[in-house]
Amino acid sequence: MHEIFLDELKKLNTQFMEMGVFVNDQIDQATRAFVDHDKKTAQSMVDNEEKIPTESIDIQKKALKLMALQQPVATDFRVVISILKATTDLERIGENAMSIALETIRVKGNPRIPEVEEIISNMTHNVRHMLIQILTAYVQDDEKMAREVASRDGVIDHDYVRARKLIVDGIEDDPSRAVASSSYFVVTRLLERIGDHIVNLASWVVYKTTGELEELTNPSETKTI
Amino acid sequence: MTTIISAKDVHLSYGNYEALHGVNLNFQEKELTALIGPSGCGKSTFLRCLNRMNDDIENIKITGEIKFEGQNIYSSKMDLVKLRKEVGMVFQQPTPFPFSVYDNVAYGLKIAGVKDKDLIDQRVEESLKQAAIWKETKDNLKRNAQAFSGGQQQRICIARALAVRPKVVLLDEPTSALDPISSSEIEETLMELKHQYTFIMVTHNLQQAGRISDQTAFLMNGDLIEAGPTEEMFIAPEKQITSDYLNGRFG
């Protein structure tokens, strides 16, 4: 009987990982399209915007079915609950990537601020690396790695604050940049939010492995919008 | 929280076979503790040690210490009748005596020498109410207790155990012979009563342990593997083997 549960759980974990890898790819595509002003790629992402929510609902339905029918407790309970919660965070990350794509379609105006675009590339590189690592920590039940990944959200926050300052300075230097800059604000904010969702994912890894519910949020986290 | 029963290094052997290998476990007053574990793990044997129900078994040897309200129950000074009045028991199969509901519930009081009819009437009514069986029996107190349904009989037995006002009630799989509705009624009864009495219950129904107990103790092969607050045991037990058992991976 228990084999059925383990088999279902394995499938669910695989589906969760696949969703994670897809979401990670979406972040890459969206930010690349934004920096390159590649409205075509952004549009094709928006055309497929239902894929992530559909996948998320499918995973959640399966997890709820396992809860209802197999009634797992202890370790098994934590595994199913954490997948249920982590899927929601993964879906939010996907939504943020989609918002970056939408901003790419909306963006108007030049000239640009190369320093800000460099920060956007840097933030993208970091959140993608963190996401892949947190997915690895999830699969390997690696609490230490999860905490380490969560602690790196401080770097994302720092970049975000730095980008905001550069944007404001850039507008002051050349007011014609103001229109393009509003999109920089949106995109850096979305990347910063992705970092926060990765911290949430890390806290689900900690819960899954230890049973402890902890707020792993960086105390110096930027609260400004 | 006050410890009402404490078991320290309890070993029990039947001849050469040791069934309990040194169990240490405390029971807090007005809590419900569930004893769980695979068949033959020693949980019922341990339960029966707590009011000396194993005493008459041939070749039995019990060592260690079990204290009830600080007094060693295996000491020669222990009054066995008093102990069993304070630490009552309800069995797996409902065991009403073959006489009326009233006489069943009044039985313990009469044995204890209570003669005051008004007091007995009052206790019978109170106990049947506490065991949530008053409504079904109040107009049939003279009816044979064995004529009631299994679930009702078990609640009559709980009422009988409560009539002598015990401090602790031991329950040996009290709902395993009952259908889900009767089981649920017994669970509700225990939930109501656990604010007044201490319950120690052996159960194979893990969901039941999760639903109604405050503390859960997991025994296997005569050893206490792990015990703790039920919430912790069912969400994050310390040992993987506990999680495996709770999820039905063996047993």
From TrEMBL, chain A:
<comment type="similarity">
    <text>Belongs to the PhoU family.</text>
</comment>
<keyword id="KW-0963">Cytoplasm</keyword>
<feature type="domain" description="PhoU">
    <location>
        <begin position="17"/>
        <end position="101"/>
    </location>
</feature>
<dbReference type="InterPro" id="IPR038078">
    <property type="entry name" value="PhoU-like_sf"/>
</dbReference>
<dbReference type="InterPro" id="IPR026022">
    <property type="entry name" value="PhoU_dom"/>
</dbReference>
<dbReference type="Pfam" id="PF01895">
    <property type="entry name" value="PhoU"/>
</dbReference>
<comment type="function">
    <text>Plays a role in the regulation of phosphate uptake.</text>
</comment>
<dbReference type="GO" id="GO:0005737">
    <property type="term" value="C:cytoplasm"/>
</dbReference>
<dbReference type="InterPro" id="IPR028366">
    <property type="entry name" value="PhoU"/>
</dbReference>
<keyword id="KW-0592">Phosphate transport</keyword>
<dbReference type="GO" id="GO:0030643">
    <property type="term" value="P:intracellular phosphate ion homeostasis"/>
</dbReference>
<protein>
    <recommendedName>
        <fullName>Phosphate-specific transport system accessory protein PhoU</fullName>
    </recommendedName>
</protein>
<dbReference type="GO" id="GO:0045936">
    <property type="term" value="P:negative regulation of phosphate metabolic process"/>
</dbReference>
<comment type="subunit">
    <text>Homodimer.</text>
</comment>
<keyword id="KW-0813">Transport</keyword>
<dbReference type="GO" id="GO:0006817">
    <property type="term" value="P:phosphate ion transport"/>
</dbReference>
<feature type="domain" description="PhoU">
    <location>
        <begin position="120"/>
        <end position="205"/>
    </location>
</feature>
From TrEMBL, chain B:
<dbReference type="GO" id="GO:0016020">
    <property type="term" value="C:membrane"/>
</dbReference>
<dbReference type="InterPro" id="IPR005670">
    <property type="entry name" value="PstB-like"/>
</dbReference>
<dbReference type="GO" id="GO:0016887">
    <property type="term" value="F:ATP hydrolysis activity"/>
</dbReference>
<dbReference type="GO" id="GO:0005315">
    <property type="term" value="F:phosphate transmembrane transporter activity"/>
</dbReference>
<keyword id="KW-0067">ATP-binding</keyword>
<dbReference type="InterPro" id="IPR027417">
    <property type="entry name" value="P-loop_NTPase"/>
</dbReference>
<dbReference type="GO" id="GO:0035435">
    <property type="term" value="P:phosphate ion transmembrane transport"/>
</dbReference>
<dbReference type="InterPro" id="IPR003593">
    <property type="entry name" value="AAA+_ATPase"/>
</dbReference>
<dbReference type="InterPro" id="IPR003439">
    <property type="entry name" value="ABC_transporter-like_ATP-bd"/>
</dbReference>
<keyword id="KW-0813">Transport</keyword>
<dbReference type="InterPro" id="IPR017871">
    <property type="entry name" value="ABC_transporter-like_CS"/>
</dbReference>
<feature type="domain" description="ABC transporter">
    <location>
        <begin position="5"/>
        <end position="246"/>
    </location>
</feature>
<keyword id="KW-0592">Phosphate transport</keyword>
<protein>
    <submittedName>
        <fullName>Phosphate ABC transporter ATP-binding protein</fullName>
    </submittedName>
</protein>
<dbReference type="Pfam" id="PF00005">
    <property type="entry name" value="ABC_tran"/>
</dbReference>
<keyword id="KW-0547">Nucleotide-binding</keyword>
<dbReference type="GO" id="GO:0005524">
    <property type="term" value="F:ATP binding"/>
</dbReference>
